[in-house]
Design a protein that fits this description.
Structural class: mainly alpha
Number of strands: 3
Largest sheet: 3 strands, parallel
Strand content: 5-15%
Radius of gyration: 16 Å
Distance between the termini: 34 Å
Length: 152
């Protein structure tokens, strides 16, 4: 995904501030090296999916270097299906930073996540690539709107 963002979508993955990396490291196993993109799954194996995703997303959303978050949720019967209210809460608390969600796992859980999140204002995509493409399009639109009325 990082290569797709950089090479094809003109999206930059910023370096996380030390405070953000420290927060993420505090919930991760010691052998994990924190960087962007954040792999939160090792933390989920220690603290559970809901805590890891919630704490991880909040740490990244608080980072002034980060303008948006694309979260790829792993949801299966075996790994567990966390309640997704925390994502809606984060989307409201950090309204200036879009949150896009994609799911990896069983179709029934992906459909349920989409049915829950989208009516609550959190765009949800079947494939991670689609989420990043939508984010790239939103960035292009914002940039074009910012140039409206400017002299060429």
């Amino acid at each position: 995904m990082a290569d797709l963002c950089d090479r094809d979508l003109d999206l930059r993955l910023p370096d996380l501030k030390e405070e953000s990396r420290s927060r993420l490291q505090s919930i991760s196993p010691p052998f994990i090296r924190i960087r962007n993109p954040v792999d939160i799954w090792p933390s989920a194996t220690v603290h559970g999916a809901e805590t890891a995703y919630r704490e991880g997303m909040e740490a990244v959303l608080r980072d002034p270097q980060v303008d948006a978050v694309v979260s790829i949720l792993m949801i299966t019967d075996e790994t567990g299906v966390p309640p997704l209210d925390f994502i809606v809460d984060l989307a409201h608390r950090f309204a200036e930073k879009p949150i896009y969600v994609s799911c990896s796992g069983q179709k029934k859980h992906m459909e349920a996540a989409k049915a829950f999140l989208e009516p609550r204002g959190v765009p949800t995509f079947w494939f991670p690539e689609e989420a990043f493409e939508a984010l790239s399009f939103a960035v292009q639109c914002r940039e074009a709107m910012g140039r409206k009325g400017e002299e060429p």
